[in-house]
Every structure is written in structure tokens, then in C-alpha cells.
Specification:
Blueprint lengths: L1 H37 L11 H23 L12 H17 L4 H14 L4 H32 L9 H22 L1 H16 L7 H18 L4 H24 L7 H15 L10 H12 L4 H17 L1 H19 L7
Helix pairs in contact: 2-3, 2-5, 2-9, 2-12, 3-4, 3-13, 4-5, 5-8, 5-9, 5-10, 6-7, 6-9, 6-10, 7-8, 9-12, 10-11, 11-12
């Protein structure tokens, strides 16, 4: 009886704690969520043409992730199966939806995505390596963005009226990111230099971190990414850059739809912070924290509170809410296909 009780605690204890943390997080951000929902009728004032623009930009952002997964899962041996585009897209959409509605966020989504890919015949080790590499390279791009934005912030703004320059900025930034990515994946010495520089800075606030330890850690992560995308480094860097830049372009489009005046570089910084908030596994997909944080940051860079709220709602509609039913449909389609094609009792 005691053993059974211990088993129940081990099985459900972690989940109960996760649900409790999620519940507390949702309670804390409930006012911001309700405020955002209260602004939904205001979307009727937005020119309808902006909605397909946002959907297209977000679709391109997701397609870049599918390309990354395709590159990472390219067979290296004859006995490894080739995963089709449809399967890769289905797995990513289903995992993305799960990360937005279930406790655990990105971790839960990755488990579901891995499960779908493994059922297609991909070895578990290959899938784990591929998803880890994708997470590392996309996170690396996110960390690189504020560094590349600093010069634009220091030099001074272009005419604030030209927020649409943010779409051009996204193209320029993507080209620069590809250059940095290829350099990091093909030139280990470059990674060592960057790691040592970052280590010196981090050492000022955290004495246990040294230049050598930071460089060693960065090189280890670089080697994992380089191994996953061996021979396809520039394509991987391009796909990772496209994933972030199309998503950023969607935020720019959401603000441009409201005829907002803002500096593209400052909007990019607000975007980076918002994406960092989404990684906090308190609420699924950063629900509430991202919405409140992005709205506050947009107000901080000079956008009116009303426009910041509607712009955040418009962007999150395309990037957060719409992918949930799409992912649910993808998962449902996969389950139906699995039920039809698998022997009875082998679909679990």
C-alpha cells in the first residue's frame, strides 16, 4: 500500500505542482488577460486586409521551423527514414498548440512533437538531437537580436512615421544573422572569442562564471547544432533567422495597421523581451505575461496605451490564438490517420 502511494506521488506529484503554479500564474495575470479580451471589439476598426497579411507572415515563420526540422532530420544513414513535409508540419503545429494550452509550455509541446516524429519511424535519439538543435539555434538568434539592435538605438531613429521600415529592417537583420550563424557553425574560433567576451561580462555579476567556462559551454552547444545541421549550415542559419524575423515582421504589421509611429529598432527590443517572457514556464505560452509585458514595453517606447493594447492583441491573435485551433486540427488529423493505418491496439 505504501509502495502504491509513493508511486502515485511520483506520477502525479509533479503534475499537481505544475498545475498549481499555472493556476497561480493565471490568477496573477488575469486582469491583463481580461483587459486584452475586453479590447477584442476594437479589432473591427482595423482594415481587413491586415489580417491576411498577419496570417501570411506567421505562416512563413512556422514554415521556417518546418524547414529547420526537415534539415535536422535529413537521413545520415541508409536505414534512417525520410520524414515528409506534411508530417513535420503536423508535428510542429500540434506541439506548438500543446505548448500554449497545457502546463509545462514548450517542454510539453516538444514531447508531443517528438512523439509524432518517432511514430513515423525516426529514431528517438535522432528526434531528441534534432529538437534540441532547433531550440538552441532559434534561441541563439533571439539572444543575438538585441546585440545587433544596439547600434541602431545609439545612432538615432529614422523618421518615426516610417514604422514600415521595420519590414526592411527584418530583411537586413536576417542577412546579418545568417552571416553570424554561418561563421559560428563553420569557425569554432569565432565561438570561442564570443564566449570569452560574454564570460568576462557575466563574471562581473556572477563570480562563478569565467571566460573559459563560458567559452567551453558555448562551444559545446555550438558543436551540437553543427552536428545536427552538418553540411547544411547556411540553410539552417537562414531558416532560424527567417523564423524570428517573420514573427517580428508580424508585430510590425500589427502596429502599422493602427498607423502607429515608432522606431523599428525599439519595437524589435520590445519584441525580444516579449519572446523572453514567453519562455517563462509559469503559464502556457507565457499567456498573460507576454501580453502585459509587450503592451507595457510598447507604451514605454512611446506608443499610446490604446494603440499598444490593440497592437498587442492583433499580434497575439495571429501568433498565439490562431495556431491553437490549427494545431488541434493537425493533431486530430494525425490521430485519425494513426487509427486507420495502425493495427488495432497499436495506436497508443
Amino acid at each position: 500500500m505504501r509502495v502504491a502511494g509513493v508511486g502515485l506521488v511520483r506520477r502525479w506529484g509533479g503534475r499537481a505542482v505544475g498545475l498549481a503554479i499555472t493556476g497561480v500564474g493565471l490568477y496573477i495575470v488575469a486582469p491583463s488577460i481580461l483587459s486584452l479580451f475586453g479590447a477584442w471589439p476594437r479589432l473591427a476598426d482595423v482594415n481587413p486586409w491586415w489580417f491576411p497579411v498577419l496570417v501570411i507572415l506567421q505562416t512563413c515563420s512556422f514554415a521556417a521551423l518546418w524547414w529547420l526540422a526537415r534539415l535536422a532530420l535529413t537521413p545520415h544513414t541508409r536505414d534512417q527514414v525520410t520524414t515528409g513535409w506534411g508530417t513535420i508540419a503536423t508535428a510542429q503545429l500540434a506541439g506548438n498548440a500543446a505548448s500554449k494550452v497545457l502546463p509545462g509550455g514548450a517542454a510539453t509541446g516538444s514531447v508531443l512533437q517528438a512523439r509524432l516524429l518517432i511514430r513515423t519511424g525516426q529514431p528517438a535519439a535522432v528526434v531528441a538531437s534534432a529538437l534540441t538543435a532547433i531550440g538552441l539555434i532559434t534561441t541563439g538568434v533571439l539572444l543575438l537580436l538585441p546585440v545587433l539592435t544596439v547600434p541602431a538605438v545609439l545612432i538615432g531613429p529614422p523618421p518615426a512615421r516610417q514604422l514600415e521600415l521595420g519590414l526592411l529592417v527584418s530583411l537586413i537583420m536576417a542577412a546579418v544573422i545568417v552571416g553570424f550563424g554561418v561563421a559560428a557553425l563553420t569557425w569554432p574560433r569565432f565561438v570561442v572569442l564570443v564566449g570569452r567576451g560574454a564570460g568576462h561580462v557575466i563574471h562581473l555579476v556572477r563570480r562563478s562564471v569565467t571566460a573559459d567556462s563560458c567559452a567551453a559551454l558555448l562551444v559545446t552547444q555550438r558543436d551540437r547544432v553543427a552536428a545536427a545541421f552538418e553540411g547544411r549550415w547556411w540553410q539552417a542559419a537562414l531558416a532560424a533567422a527567417a523564423n524570428r524575423m517573420f514573427d517580428y515582421a508580424a508585430l510590425v504589421a500589427a502596429l502599422a495597421a493602427l498607423d502607429v509611429r515608432a522606431r523599428p529598432s525599439m519595437v524589435l527590443l520590445a519584441y525580444v523581451v516579449a519572446q523572453a517572457l514567453a519562455m517563462i514556464p509559469i503559464t502556457p505560452g507565457g499567456l498573460g505575461f507576454v501580453d502585459a509585458g509587450l503592451t507595457a514595453l510598447l507604451v514605454l517606447i512611446g506608443i499610446s496605451p490604446d494603440a499598444a493594447l490593440i497592437g498587442t492583441l492583433l499580434y497575439r491573435l495571429a501568433s498565439f490564438w490562431l495556431p491553437i485551433p490549427v494545431g488541434l486540427l493537425a493533431w486530430t488529423g494525425w490521430r485519425i490517420h494513426l487509427h486507420i493505418t495502425s493495427p488495432a491496439g497499436d495506436d497508443e
